[in-house]
DNA sequence: TCGGCTTGTTGGCACTGTGTCAACAAGCGC
DNA sequence: GCGCTTGTTGACACAGTGCCAACAAGCCGA
């Protein structure tokens, strides 16, 4: 919030770009896409509005970069495939997911629900990619490295379940972590045992 | 698309309002929230733009009405609780859900993902209400008429699973209806047997 | 130290979209 | 036909966006 009303100062392009991007991440995370203007981002960064367009082109491109960092930051905490039998592996992948999503709750949950603008083709693609990554992790952790398209689709469905369940826990507070954990492990085992064979 | 370029004609307020609303539903369904202007809606209805504001106030209020009809039209097809044992009831509630969602696929799936504007408090509330209704139906169909808050939260999570799975079927085409059916019934039974007792 | 040059940065222009409102006129009753 | 109600219009003011020429911060050679 330091407005830094002093002289204009030249920053290296990368530094300035990242500074603006961080402000945009914060603002788009707090309010939606429509309620944040490029002028707000510029003012938050203590910069002329035209500079935002200079670095990011259009407002939608800026927003794409924003949800990209929101979604890839938690995904960067990739883990190795845990050893053990199936229930153990399911347990640890669920724990890992809950750890990640609780640490970056506002970012991840906000972005995965397209915090401001779904229906747009480009935004949808970025979100779909993030879901694909999460689905891949589920499949490999479970020991079924990408078999067919149907299995991958089912894994994406499971990610949808995990997301909505995490929202009940973190945003609405109507579920405890233990309940979420139990729900996600039980359903994951059911899917692996009973419905994945159909694919 | 008949532009009806003739004289201006007076309609009764309800008729005019619904005419504009139907055009808005179509347009918001096709493109997103941001890509549809009130001028587009007005032109589609063969009407001055100011009239849209006269009937709906602001653009966001118009959009709220739009997603309200998108979500409540399928929900209006409420069914009675089917008889039979648990697997039978689970089977029929899943079938009913798939029938409804496939018939109104573009509307329901588009709106439930907040086709254009999530993160907004009012929009989120309308969507949350629709999910609550669906969760109630699941609970009653399964024979657990709203017990505790946690069970209801779990039912909402299941609706999230059903939604994301239906999207894999109807929008991406990577799952067949039979696969979706199997997945949703198996997970529902698991949840009723193993995780609902924790609530 | 000073002038020149590169380029990060600014402010203003044109345009679109939104909300509001006084004025207009369609269609009814007298 | 006349007047009144009120559905409907067009224009105004304003906010937000994208673009671009002009400006100046800071480095380099003289």
Order of helices and strands of chain A: HHHHHHHHH
The chain pair with the largest interface is:
A-B, 47 and 47 residues
The secondary structure category of chain A is: mainly alpha
Summed over residues and divided by their number, the pLDDT of chain A gives a mean of 87
Low-pLDDT residue intervals, each spanning 5 or more residues of chain A: none
| Count of runs of 4 or more consecutive helical residues of chain A | 9
Oligomeric state: homodimer
* Topology, number of strands of chain A: 0
Silhouette of chain A:
elongated
Largest β-sheet summary of chain A: none
Give the % helix of chain A: over 70%
Q: Using the CA coordinates, give the radius of gyration of chain A.
A: 20 Å
Q: How many discrete domains of chain A?
A: 2
- Hey, roughly how much beta strand do the residues of chain A contain? under 5%
Termini distance of chain A? 53 Å
Organism (chains A, B): Paractinoplanes tereljensis
InterPro entries (chains A, B): DesT_TetR_C, DNA-bd_HTH_TetR-type_CS, Homeodomain-like_sf, HTH-type_TetR-like_transc_reg, HTH_TetR
Pfam family, one (chains A, B): TetR_N
GO molecular function, one term (chains A, B): DNA-binding transcription factor activity
């Amino acid at each position: 919030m330091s407005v830094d009303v002093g002289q204009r100062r030249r920053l290296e392009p990368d530094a300035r770009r990242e500074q603006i991007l961080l402000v945009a991440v914060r603002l788009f995370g707090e309010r939606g896409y429509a309620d944040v203007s490029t002028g707000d981002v510029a003012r938050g960064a203590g910069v002329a509005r035209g500079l935002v367009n200079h670095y990011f082109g259009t407002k939608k491109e800026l927003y794409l970069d924003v949800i990209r960092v929101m979604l890839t930051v938690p995904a960067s905490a990739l883990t190795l495939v845990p050893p053990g039998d199936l229930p153990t592996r399911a347990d640890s992948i669920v724990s890992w997911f809950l750890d990640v999503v609780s640490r970056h709750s506002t970012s991840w949950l906000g972005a995965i629900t397209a915090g401001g603008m779904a229906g747009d083709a480009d935004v949808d693609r970025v979100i779909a990619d993030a879901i694909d990554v999460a689905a891949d992790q589920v499949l490999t952790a479970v020991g079924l490295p990408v078999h067919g398209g149907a299995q991958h689709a089912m894994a994406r469905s499971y990610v949808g379940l995990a997301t909505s369940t995490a929202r009940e826990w973190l945003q609405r507070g109507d579920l405890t972590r233990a309940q979420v954990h139990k729900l996600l492990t039980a359903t994951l085992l059911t899917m692996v045992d009973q419905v994945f064979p159909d694919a």
